[in-house]
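The material for today's practical consists of a large collection of protein records. An example says more than a description, so a record of this kind follows:
***
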Amino acid sequence: MSRHAQQLRDHDINPCVAETDASRRCMDDNNYNKDMCTAYFMKYKSCRKFWHDIMMQRKRNGVKPEMPSAEERRKMLETMGKPY
């Protein structure tokens, strides 16, 4: 597995691993018919947007690291509910 592929699977780097996996699984199950997986794609897109907005806010506030760790994200989602 390439270094880039490993980073995409790292929960500390990619907050949307579960959504990525669900989209890919849907595509596999539906013979790559994108129309059947629109809901999964929208959920992935919402996830990416949500965490990108969090990352940009932390960057503006000078918080390091800009992307919260997997544990921090889990706690954030527990308190607010999953917004996507």
User: Anything to note?
Assistant: The mean pLDDT is 93. The two ends are 29 Å apart (CA to CA).
